[in-house]
């Protein structure tokens, strides 16, 4: 009995220490990024004016110049199920279990596709990447639609905002 107790307790201790270190690292990242502007609030009537709605997954927001540097501040580093809603005012990411993200049309700089972003890699052009200005910082936000049709719909609707 005691020959299994010590290794079990040691394993539990190691796991607890690892989770504590991960939490400490994440909190440090949030603290270092505390100067980032908060995302804008979506207009109240945005949902009524939606031109496209796509179910999928919010993947991550990263610095455009540093694609492996996840932005943790304002909940932007949390991967969640989401719905992308495109309206004339911008793109609204209605996230489950995390703060929503609104990208105003005037802050949207580019719409592209990619096969991956930090922490998530999929088939070729499987992610829709929205490049936008978060205050003075240029960032990329990745969204993975549930279907290929959804990806094309989101890419086309968001790209139309750039031409408006």
Keyword list:
164 residues, alpha+beta, 7-stranded antiparallel β-sheet, 2 helices, 29% helix, 35% strand, elongated
Explain how this protein is built.
The chain has 164 residues and is of the alpha+beta class. The chain contains two helices and nine strands. The chain has a seven-stranded antiparallel sheet with strand order 4-3-2-1-9-8-5, with helices on one face. It has a two-stranded antiparallel ribbon with strand order 6-7. The mean pLDDT is 88.
Outline the low-pLDDT stretches: none
Give the overall silhouette: elongated
State the end-to-end distance: 71 Å
Query: Overall mean pLDDT score?
Result: 88
What is the H/E string? HEEEEEEEEEH
Q: Could you give the count of β-strands?
A: 9
Decide which structural class fits the backbone.
Answer: alpha+beta
Q: Roughly how many Å is the radius of gyration?
A: 19 Å
Kindly report the spatial arrangement of strands forming the biggest sheet.
Answer: 4-3-2-1-9-8-5
Layout of helices and strands, plus pairs?
Elements: H1 2-32, E1 52-63, E2 80-87, E3 90-95, E4 101-104, E5 108-114, E6 116-117, E7 120-121, E8 127-134, E9 137-145, H2 148-163
Antiparallel strand pairs: 1-2, 1-9, 2-3, 3-4, 5-8, 6-7, 8-9
Quick overview of this protein structure:
With 164 residues, this protein is α+β, with helices and mostly antiparallel strands. 29% of the residues lie in helices and 35% in strands.
